[in-house]
Specification:
The structure is a single chain. The protein is 28% helix and 27% strand. By secondary structure, it is α/β, with parallel strands linked by helices. The chain has a single domain, classed as Alpha/Beta hydrolase fold, catalytic domain (Rossmann fold). The strands form two sheets. An eleven-stranded mixed sheet has the order 2-3-4-6-5-7-8-9-12-11-10, with helices on both faces. A three-stranded antiparallel sheet has the order 1-13-14. A hairpin with a 6-residue loop joins strand 2 and strand 3. Helix 1 packs across helix 5. The longest helix has 19 residues. The protein is globular, with a radius of gyration of 18 Å.
Length: 310
């Protein structure tokens, strides 16, 4: 039987070329950091994982200072002069937080064992403005795209991050935010993965990068076929996950999809797409709106394998 951890949460296309976007984003974040007097450590936390340091740091944005939880393995030195390593940025679901996301994904131990940095975003009011979802961040028009840009660039400025291997992972509302970020700022990442999410913004991804969608076949909150009615507090209608993935394939000029059954998973693959990208949709039998964590399907391991980090 498939083991899964279920928690009661949910989780303007950029026309400029990637180099122009990155320079503009770097200048913006540099100005914000200078105005804030530099980023500083807020506090350390214990995630019950040996061999890592977990600390909250400040992330400056033009809507005020925010936080991010950074996991740094003891094997990775301080400062940018060290050997560069990959960075995984992970986004929690609605009503959840960074520490819960760290625990359900097990990314702390994975970062230690596989030698990468992990940063967990902190949504205001435990939510992300992913377009039409979710919670207070939508009604307050929070600029979460800029926050994530600042998070990534702050990590690159303070830690030994390999800028060619920065990846974005989201769960539920955080997965919806992943779609929106890939529409507006994909030039900052090498690939992305959405778990139990969908394209709530209905946006277009102009830059082709490897993209993985994982959904439970029995997900009642973000169903694969979509829903016209709200099924949870703070969540409106959810677009079809299958159509969201198909749209990514069209955005990336992918060829016709192929489908194969791999045990409890039905995998739909579109490749090779523009610029060598691929779009993969894994549907997990026996899983709902949760994070499958054990045999026969381990979500975190599957994501890392897709990015070549496992």
């Amino acid at each position: 039987m498939l083991k899964r951890l279920t928690i009661p949460t949910l989780g303007r296309p950029a026309g400029a070329r990637q180099p122009v976007f990155r320079l503009g984003a770097i200048l913006l974040v540099a100005a914000l950091i200078a105005a804030a007097g530099g980023c500083s450590l807020i506090t350390s936390v214990d995630l019950d994982v040996e061999g890592i340091d977990a600390s909250y740091i400040e992330i400056p944005t033009d809507q005020g200072s925010r936080e991010a939880l950074v996991v740094q393995p003891d094997s990775i030195g301080q400062g940018t002069e060290q050997t560069p390593v990959p960075l995984v940025v992970a986004l929690h679901g609605l009503g959840s937080d960074a520490e819960v996301m760290a625990k359900i994904t097990g990314l702390g131990a994975e970062a230690r064992d596989k030698g990468f940095l992990a940063a967990f975003g902190v949504g205001l009011d435990d939510s992300w403005n992913a377009g039409t979802c979710c919670g207070e961040s939508v009604s307050a028009k929070v600029n979460d795209v800029q926050y994530l840009q600042a998070l990534i660039l702050t990590m690159e400025a303070q830690y030994p991050v390999d800028r060619s291997r920065v990846y974005l992972l989201g769960y539920s509302n955080g997965a919806m935010m992943t779609y929106r970020f890939m529409c507006e700022a994909a030039g900052l990442v090498a690939g992305a993965a959405s778990v139990a999410g969908t394209n709530a913004a209905g946006c277009t991804m102009p830059i082709a990068k490897p993209f993985l969608q994982i959904s439970g076949r029995d997900d009642p909150i973000v169903p694969i076929a979509g829903s016209d009615v709200s099924t949870a507090p703070g969540v409106g209608p959810t677009p079809s996950v299958a159509e969201s993935v198909a749209k990514v394939g069209r955005d990336f000029d992918c060829p016709r999809s192929t489908e194969v059954s791999l045990g409890p998973v039905t995998e739909t693959r579109r490749a090779p797409c523009r610029d060598g990208a691929q779009v993969v949709f894994d549907v997990v039998d026996g899983a709902g709106h949760g994070w499958p964590i054990g045999e026969p399907f381990a979500t975190t391991g599957r994501v890392l394998q897709f990015w070549g980090l496992a």
